Amino acid sequence: MTKNNARENWWKQAVVYQVYPRSFYDTDGDGLGDIRGVTAQMDYLRELGVDAIWLSPFYPSPLVDGGYDVANYRDVDPRLGTLEDFDEMAAAAHAAGIKVVVDIVPNHTSTEHEWFKAALAAGPGSPERDRYIFRRGRGEHGELPPNGWRSTFGGPGWEPVGDGDWYLHLFAVEQADLNWENPEVREDFKRTLRFWSDRGADGFRIDVAHALAKDLKSRPLDEWPDEPDQDHPGAENPLWDRPEVHEIYREWRQVFNEYEPARFAVGEAWVVPEHQWRYASTEELGQVFNFELAKANWAADEMRLAIEEGLDSAERSGSTTTWVLSNHDVVRHATRYGLPQVKSAVHHQLANDWLLRDGRTYHEDRALGTRRARAALLMELGLPGSVYLYQGEELGLFEVANIPWDALEDPQAHMTAHGDALKGRDGCRVPLPWEAEKDDFGFSAPATHAPAHLPQPAWFADHAVDAEEGDERSMLHYYRRALALRAALLTATGDTSLTWADGYDDQVIAYRRPTADGRVLTSVTNFGAHAVELPEGEVLLASTELSDGALPADATAWVVC
User: Fold this and answer.
1) Interatomic CA distance for residues 172 and 156, integer angstroms
2) By three-state DSSP, how is residue 524 classified?
3) What angle do CA 382, 385, 386 make, to 5 degrees?
4) Which residues are part of the catalytic machinery?
5) CB-CB contact of 522 with 535 (8 Å)
6) For each of the chain's 561 residues, which pLDDT tens digit applies?
7) What residues contact residue 208 under an 8 Å CB cut-off, 6+ apart?
8) Is the peptide bond before 384 cis (omega within 30 degrees of 0)?
9) φ, ψ at 19 (rounded to 5°)
């Protein structure tokens, strides 16, 4: 790979670390993490060995949905800092050799956005309302919603504004869906992409990328089903994964290509695997999240299928795929792997049921969850493509299941209270532990500080950064060693090929990759109950101690020859 290609395509095999800013590190003592906190811990991120950081939304927001209800796309929330703080953070990241990816939320704005306020003031039929999806209600006075669409957070998907009009919100009531058929909406988001690119953003993560285009014209609204199924998207689905959405991203690609090197984007598109590649096309975003690995149970058949589907998507897109085990929206994988592994029609159903009951229904075997998490990491890191890590997984954090209900921030917990209840996603968003002996585990830098915005459990002390720094066997040290080996041996070549290794039964996932020094690396993961023999060669790293040279259950090893 030439230097120019490496510079242009840095993201194709990058390790990207997701920062949830409000829970990363607090420098001013208000109990919320901030942009300066990211800057303050840049050495930590550099030592971890990541290539890029992705910051979840840090924009001005009422915080109804953790910042994904954006009131101003081209500023920093005053509680998190200033634009100058962002500039300093981006400069510090680039000085450390770390790229910066920012989150763009294009499906909806906060109802506190100036556009939405103007829409309410302007009234029905106005150009201001045409920026959003307003429709006249049914009934003589518009007193009934346009149809029965539901919010994904629970409850009705339409909200009345008192004059016979209703607006669509696929998520919280305070998140009004934008009308992407409106040229003004399209042009404004292009300005936003340029604004952050000009300030040092190297790429973008696109929230709910599969929902922007909607069909509200081809038939009367009340003829659509009340809950269009996200698992069966396409031209016959009015809300999810419509073909027209790709026109938007082809326009965005033109903006990305205005820069040198070109900016890239990764789409959050919960779509069927056979549609993923469209978003990842080199004519559109460049990458799409492959959530199949994150959705899978700790089972060889599910993991193998997830890998095969990711590789197939990459081949069809002409790009590379992504590998994800956890993020800000799902139960942490160290917990998921420690719970009973039960196949279900809905991914993570058992984990969410366990969480709903404060973690009391099923036994969480943390030792087993940790063992499997270590194995999963090594299996994941060996795969071709980009790896997205979620803050705290490098510390082996588990889900915090017993947050009191009156302390929850996630709107899912409140909007589903009278239906298919969910406790929400706060359990993976609890502020990180940095120092074991501090009352807030060092989350806030000042000696006098407000409590962390979500309560931290006592067991966080065992997973604090300073505690793990002093233990060579800790998860933190393991992540650092694994990431360093990946960078030196696998991604340095630019080669994204993979071949499956023969000689193992269906309880083993084994594959081979060429290395930068001309050897071949074999990754072997044992999902079975009995130890398996490793191929001839040097064992570079194993997720646990070997058993007389063999790989025990729930373990991964990298062998080179």
Assistant:
1) 10
2) strand
3) 95
4) 207, 258
5) yes
6) 445 566 789 999 999 999 999 999 999 999 999 999 999 999 999 999 999 999 999 999 999 999 999 999 999 999 999 999 999 999 999 999 999 999 999 999 999 999 999 999 999 999 999 999 999 999 999 999 999 999 988 889 999 999 999 999 999 999 999 999 999 999 999 999 999 999 999 999 999 999 999 999 999 998 888 878 766 666 689 999 999 999 999 999 999 999 999 999 999 998 888 888 999 999 999 999 989 999 999 999 999 999 999 999 999 999 999 999 999 999 999 999 999 999 988 899 999 999 999 999 999 999 999 999 999 999 999 999 999 999 999 999 999 999 999 999 988 887 765 556 789 899 999 999 999 999 999 999 999 999 999 999 999 999 999 999 999 999 999 999 999 999 999 998 889 999 999 999 999 999 999 999 999 999 999 999 999 999 999 999 999 999 999 999 999 999 999
7) 105, 106, 107, 108, 170, 171, 268
8) no
9) -100, 120
Contact 158, 149 (CB under 8 A): yes
Cα separation, 451 vs 145, whole angstroms: 42
353, two tokens: 């049921």
Helix (H) or strand (E) segment spanning residue 483: helix 475-485
Which amino acid is it at 411?
P
Contact 431, 440 (CB under 8 A): yes
